[in-house]
Specification:
By secondary structure, the protein is of the alpha/beta class. The chain folds into three domains: 47 residues, Up-down Bundle (dopa decarboxylase, N-terminal domain), CATH 1.20.1340; 264 residues, Aspartate Aminotransferase, domain 2 (3-Layer(aba) Sandwich); 104 residues, Aspartate Aminotransferase, domain 1 (Alpha-Beta Complex), CATH 3.90.1150. 42% of the residues lie in helices and 14% in strands. The chain contains 14 helices and 13 strands. The strands form three sheets. The chain has a seven-stranded mixed β-sheet, with helices on both faces. β4 and β5 form a beta hairpin. The longest helix is centred in the last third of the chain and has 36 residues. The N and C termini lie far apart (62 Å).
């Protein structure tokens, strides 16, 4: 049997590329008319797909028709201007165009020589962002896929440093338990990093948080380290946060760093969401003092800055410890000639995409001041909506705004909070998610979608109260 299907040629590619570009523009211009969250039931999409792949090729017209009919009803619209759930995953138009170019070139940018432009633009873009966030010039860095990968890289480095770089070779068997410290407000990626690194969940020491910024109790940190040393454990590192996922918790970075330096511990700062706001100098006084000196810092341009997912920047005060942890150099990856940077040695995956291009396009298109304006607006609008809900009969503000994130409760018990979240999301006009704080169910509200307006944010207050009145 011979294959008689028709392969797509580049003229046909150009035709459909224009079609999809037009579709994308129309999609974004009409997003407000769509429900934010997918309204399908579990299994509904899969049931419309055939049980096996086709034996012969099909035309793109039929494929795109099925995309509209089958896939689109099952999409939650993260670029919707009334997406107030989780944290944003923005995709500004220049960033999307950059990704189209990256996909078209389809380079594997693991080494300098496999695409010198990808490596050198990445080096410069990391430095542009370093300066924009007010970090000192000694920081270098690398673009990771996500903050989870950056955190795992940092935890692995903590492990290796604490074991005199013997863990990769000899494993952890027979060694005293390694201990890593954080607050009870950290993201679950910290837990997962400890699982994967072999440190273990039981050796991630979560300390109480408190105060207006829900910061780690530094006194408890000191006591925990002393107790672990007395018990024969090996303290390995500290993970701090600026803008934790739950309620925006932010540690006293200077106080944490002072403990770490006194104990000779490696430090990692998770600023995945809130780090972007540090391009605005006025927010640094509350959230950034003491940041200089952390060994590893991560923030996600793909959250609040508008870079297409995935794009996470890890800054390193001295990359050598991470290189000593992750670098592996078989003969086929060795580079001869002049000394160059091979970013695959800085990260867990060997393969690397040209992620720096979308940062270059984004920063040049909007400029830092254009991005600052959006962030400042989001913060101001979140504060404004918080006051609206504070005045609503029976509603309670649980945690005050941390930048553009706050949490609240409607009248009733924990079950009532979930009923309201579910009803709001079924309504479709806005999208919210629940959380937990101090043993109670809360409703989170964050403003950060790239194209949201004040009207979108203030509309949410009316939707919340209207839907509540119907329960």
């Amino acid at each position: 049997m011979t294959y008689d299907g028709k392969d797509m040629d580049w003229d046909e590619f150009a035709h459909w590329g224009k079609h999809i570009s037009d579709w994308a523009a129309d999609y974004h211009k009409t997003l407000r008319a769509r429900p934010v969250r997918a309204q399908t039931r579990p299994g509904e999409i899969a049931a419309q797909l055939p049980p096996a792949a086709p034996e012969t090729g099909e035309g793109m017209e039929a494929i795109l028709s099925d995309f509209e009919r089958i896939a689109m009803p099952g999409m939650t619209h993260w670029q919707h201007p009334r997406f107030f759930a989780y944290f944003p995953a923005n995709a500004a138009p220049p960033s999307i165009l950059a990704e189209m170019l990256v996909s078209s070139i389809a380079a594997q940018c693991m080494l300098w020589q496999t695409s010198p432009a990808a490596t050198e633009i990445e080096e410069v873009m990391v430095d542009w962002l370093r300066a924009a966030l007010g970090l000192p010039p000694e920081y270098t860095g690398v673009i990771q896929d996500s903050a989870s990968s950056a955190t795992l890289s940092a935890v692995l480095t903590m492990r290796e440093r604490a074991t005199a770089f013997t863990g990769n070779r000899a494993g952890l068997s027979g060694k005293p338990p390694l201990r890593i410290y954080c607050s009870d407000q950290v993201h679950s990626s910290i837990d997962r990093a400890c699982w994967i690194a072999g440190v273990g969940q039981d050796n991630l020491v979560k300390l109480p948080s408190g105060g207006p910024q829900h910061a780690m109790d530094v006194g408890a940190l000191r006591k925990a380290i002393a107790a672990d040393r007395a018990a024969g454990h090996i303290p390995a590192g500290i993970v701090a946060i600026t803008g934790g996922t739950g309620v925006g918790a932010s540690d006293d970075l200077g106080a944490v760093l002072k403990v770490a330096q006194g104990e000779n511990l490696y430090t990692h700062l998770d600023a995945a969401w809130a780090g972007a706001a540090m391009i605005c100098p006025e927010y640094r006084a509350a959230f950034w003092p003491g940041v200089a000196g952390f060994d590893s810092i991560v923030f996600n341009p793909h959250k609040w800055l508008g870079a297409q997912f995935d794009c996470s920047v890890q800054f390193l005060a001295d990359p050598q410890a991470q290189l000593n942890t992750l670098k592996i150099e078989p003969e086929y990856l060795k580079t001869s000639g002049e000394r160059v940077t091979n970013f695959s040695e800085w990260t867990i995956p060997l393969g690397r995409r040209f992620r720096a291009l979308k940062i270059w396009f984004l920063l040049r298109s909007y400029g830092l001041e254009g991005l600052r304006m959006r962030i400042r607006n989001h913060v101001n609008w979140a504060h404004e909506l918080c006051e609206v809900l504070r005045k609503a009969d029976g509603f309670e503000i649980v945690t005050e705004p941390m930048l553009s994130l706050f949490s609240f409760r409607c009248p009733g018990d924990d079950a009532a909070q979930q009923r309201l979240v579910d009803a709001i999301n079924d309504d479709g006009r806005i999208y919210l998610t629940q959380g937990a704080f101090e043993g109670r169910r809360i409703i989170r509200f964050q403003v950060g979608q790239f194209e949201t307006t004040r009207d979108d944010v203030m509309m949410a207050g009316g939707v919340i109260q209207e839907v509540w009145s119907t329960l």
